[in-house]
Every structure is written in C-alpha cells, then in structure tokens.
Amino acid sequence: MPTRRIIFSRLALDARIGILEHERRATQPLHVDAEIDVDITRDVDDHDIHSVLDYRALREAIVAVCTHSHVNLIETLTEQVAERLMKDFKDIRAVRIRISKPMAFSDCAAVGVEIYTSR
Fold first, then answer.
1. In this protein, which residues make up the domain named Dihydroneopterin aldolase/epimerase (predicted)?
2. Taking each helix axis from N to C terminus, what angle separates 55-68 and 74-88, rounded to the nearest 10 degrees?
3. Angle formed at CA 1 by CA 44 and CA 6, multiple of 5 degrees
4. Which one is the CATH code of 3-118: 1.10.443.10, 3.30.1130.10, 3.10.129.10, 3.40.50.300?
5. Given 8, 49, 61, 77, which is the most exposed site by the fewest CB atoms within 10 A?
6. Among candidates 35, 76, 83, which has minimal Cα distance to 61?
7. pLDDT of residue 1
8. Cα distance between the two ends of the chain
C-alpha cells in the first residue's frame, strides 16, 4: 500500500523533563522532529481536509504528550510520543520521532534520542 510522509521539523516546546535536581525544578526547551508515514487509502480531495490525516491533530498529540507531566528520561518521552501516535491514528504505518534537548550541553547544538516503530 502506498504511503505519504508527514514531517515536523524542530517543533519547539517547553517540557518538564530530566532526572537531575535542577531539571526537576523548571521546564526546559525541547525540539521534536517527526516523520510519520501514513497509508494512502483514498485520493486527496483538495476541498476536504478529511481526505488526508490532518497534521494539526498529530501536532496536538505530540505537544500533549510532551507537556502532560514530568518525565525523567528523554528515552521514555520519545517512546511515549511514538506509542500515542500509533495508538490514536490508525492510518499511520510508521513513525520516526527524535526529541532533543538543545540546552543540555554548551559544546553541542543538542543531544537527543530517536525511535522508529512501524506496524
């Protein structure tokens, strides 16, 4: 079955993440990159948003998971985002999620974790 890829590049948000004491006291910036492969089940109707998977709903789900509660490890958060997308959106064939912390180290642009999962 053919697929279409929806891409989010550097979705920026503040989240409560980290296992260190100073990370538990305040939010910190995160960047989320996502590649979401969606089954193409019908032709795109340029006048009907329901003929495609609305990326606004995908973004809303990603933000909700990342900002819901404190998470200690970025690995856990990355898995939670992937699981939520696969559970809530049945047209998704595969997801690649990368979450990075741009303020983690002063000597690199960011450090992060990536997960890929498929049906």
1. 6-117
2. 140
3. 55
4. 3.30.1130.10
5. 49
6. 83
7. 79
8. 13
